[in-house]
Amino acid sequence: MTFxxxxxxxxxxxxxxxxxxxxxxxxxxxxxxxRDNFYYASYLFAAAVGMPEQLPFEAxxxxxxxxxxxxxxxxxxxxxxxxxxxxxxxxxxxxxxxxAKPNVLPVELMGSLMAFFTDRYRAHFSENVAHAFETxxxxxxxxxxYRHKIVYGHHDAKYTxxxxxxxxxxxxxxxxxxxxxxxxxxxxxxxxHGMSEYGSLPWFWHWVQAFTCxxxxxxxxxxxxxxxxxxxxxxxxRAAFYLKGTWAGAHCRGQKHDIPLDGNVLHxxxxxxxxxxxxxxxxxxxxxLLYYKAPETARQTALHRDEPVExxxxxxxxxxxxxxxxxxxxxxxxxxxxxxMWERYEEFDNEQxxxxxxxxxxxxxxxxxxxxxxxxxxxxxxxPRHQSRHTEVLFxxxxxxxxxxxxxxxxxxxVGVLPNTDxxxxxxxxxxxxxNVYVAVYLMQPYEVDKLADRYVVTSDGGRNGVxxxxxxxxxxxxxxxxxxEAFAAEARLHAPAWSSDEKLSVRYATLEQNxxxxxxxxxxxxxxxxxxxPIDFSEYAL
Length: 543
Hints:
This protein is an alpha+beta fold and 543 residues long. The chain is 35% helix and 22% strand. The strands form five sheets. An eight-stranded antiparallel β-sheet has the order 5-6-7-8-9-12-17-16, with no helix packed on it. Strands 10-11-18-15-14-13 form a six-stranded antiparallel β-sheet. Helix 4 packs across helix 6, helix 6 runs antiparallel to helix 7 and helix 9 runs parallel beside helix 11. It starts with a helix and ends in an 8-residue tail after the last strand.
């Protein structure tokens, strides 16, 4: 299937969902987020005018419905030039959308996408829709929402793209040049310091959306080439951690549809297409309308995982206190990936997802990530994203070790999330399998297990605790004479780790491949991490 066919599949699916969604009395489909109305209406309109023969309903009424919703969205823009929120839209609409307070976020994404949508579909607009879009775009441009000091995050990516797009659209040479300067600075920054918003979904896709939108609209060949350089970098970064629709390893931040299930998959699906499109699409946005082909090297990296590979990345987090180097590790095979971030970093809202074992989309039912953490909040079972700083980790290929030295005033519990497969539960160990992988989970302290509809949730009490997870593909297991879960369990029991919590909290573990892992935390906070007696060598970690 070509990327065009996959975009058509997405557009058709979302258009049908939009058509079947009942309109509320406000004339909108959703009141939780104005952007969802814009995205759904965009897809319904695009499908009605671009593929009417493929729709299971009449195209003209669908087009009219889409235009009504688009008009209602555009009416909610603050067009009062004296207002502090001039040019903005409300985000959450509440019970009365026309009285909802404007927010700075919607225009960041919708502004540039509206310019793209108008450019592509203007010939199909009715007169009043065309006028409404033209008016809204002028107010966006005049609002200057994009005039911020650049700090090289996802907001800046959208501001930079907007400067380019609106600078060209309104013949503002100064604004266009400012956008180009920001683009050049941003590309130089990420090449020098790495992607500080590592694995940060959906914000990474905001980078991709913003620069793809600009790349499709910009006429200047030199700027277009620089935009291509940025997109090549982004897709190469994406490909490095890609496994069949998932993002392996650590995440700087994540939404509920990113952790513990990789749900934000539409851009990946269009670009790579090596997994089945899920039934649930939590982030529709513009993946079905925007496209930039990733470099062939990136595509080859992403699509050919025949041999296991270690991905070792260094990146810098910049703050007023200076730069701090972080080191990201991932071990990626054709059937699972393991890895995370060696260092704890205080990310927004304690959202650093430190490590996990990742399985491809569709390989297991329900969640596709396996991990443990010490919760920073009480509702860890309902929202297992917010992790405290009380963790030390050791990564080596298919094995992850983690220790949790919890202070007296912390929640005396760690929480684990495991995929929805059958797990053998024995004292100190859990054993499971997917279609192609065996997994052993060792716990230092006793544990309890709750089976939910889409996952297993493990809780283990104790102020000094630890976890080791080792995964092995069945093809490697067969080479060791292991041909069933029972045989794997027997082997795993022989490899039980040696835990200690006397003078120091520590663990020693011999992997199935006979690599010896040691992780310990001394009484004064001294930390020792070694593999086969050697300390961790970060010299191979590159930007």
